[in-house]
Amino acid sequence: MCHFKCSNMYKVSCSGSRVRMVCSGGSQASFILKVRPLEKYPVDLYYLVDVSASMHNNIEKLNSVGFALSKKMENISLDFRLGFGSYVDKTVSPYISIHPGRIHNQCSDYNLDCMPPHGYIHVLSLTDNIAEFRNAVNKQKISGNIDTPEGGFDAMLQAAVCQSHIGWRKEAKRLLLVMTDQTSHLALDSKLAGIVIPHDGNCHLKDNVYVKATSMEHPSLGQLSEKLIDNNINVIFAVQGSQFHWYKDLLPLLPGTVARQIESQAANLNDLVVEAY
């Protein structure tokens, strides 16, 4: 809706998202522009999940999320897509155990058979096939590491900049849901492993695996913020446990992000996504 007023001769045209106003030389003009969001706006939601062993119960809950969430999102968007990726940490000491007996299974303390640790794996590109999403999550195995912080910011940057891999659409609202129960490593933490090359901010996926995890540092908060903004990514931190406050304190440094606390086994995950949206 457009309302215009010129003090002299004027010509106004208002069509769709474009407004053109021509006034006579030296005259002044004022206008009121009312804007409202489009109904049923396209939504791309990419789940980036910490698959360390302590997240085992939450990952199992994800199996039932896809269909239920798609039903809830029908009130918001008729064009809703889901994607999925997993992360753990940099695959070098002191972040993981390099003992020959544990290098491929870091979860012996949990009596579980884990997949090898990894920095970030892009599992499923954005799709409207909910059955495909559920199948991908159902096949997901947990992994493990040694230290408490994870490599979440490493994975977030890749999910933001690797647009063709993830399948982010230009016309869609882009939501990156980061699901974890621990803090993330920050830039300079990598020096503990002798990694001193700053992150270059580019996409480094090969066969859907992040291949620079052991050779480049974790991104800084400023660098991560820049890449999220440049790629129009809005982040939802879905955090279980006491580390929720760590992420909440970071929100002023990461524009376009929110933090929500998830209950045991992610029971409130669907409501959390809708509320954050």
From TrEMBL:
Superkingdom of source: Eukaryota
Q: Which Pfam families match?
A: Integrin_beta
GO MF terms held by the record: integrin binding
Asked if the record carries the keyword Repeat, the reply is: yes
Which InterPro entries does the entry mention?
A: Integrin_bsu, Integrin_bsu_VWA, vWFA_dom_sf
- Keyword Iron-sulfur listed? The answer is no
**Name used for this protein in its record:** Integrin beta
Where does the Integrin beta subunit VWA domain start and stop, copy by copy?
A: 5-277
Q: What taxonomic ancestry is recorded?
A: Eukaryota, Metazoa, Chordata, Craniata, Vertebrata
UniProt lists the family membership as follows: Belongs to the integrin beta chain family.
Q: What is its main location?
A: membrane
The UniProt keywords, alphabetically, are: Cell adhesion, Cell membrane, Disulfide bond, EGF-like domain, Glycoprotein, Integrin, Magnesium, Membrane, Repeat, Transmembrane, Transmembrane helix
Give one GO biological process term. cell migration
Mode of membrane association: Single-pass type I membrane protein
Location in the cell: Cell membrane
PANTHER family xrefs? INTEGRIN BETA SUBUNIT, INTEGRIN BETA-8
Write out the GO cellular component annotations. cell surface; focal adhesion; integrin complex
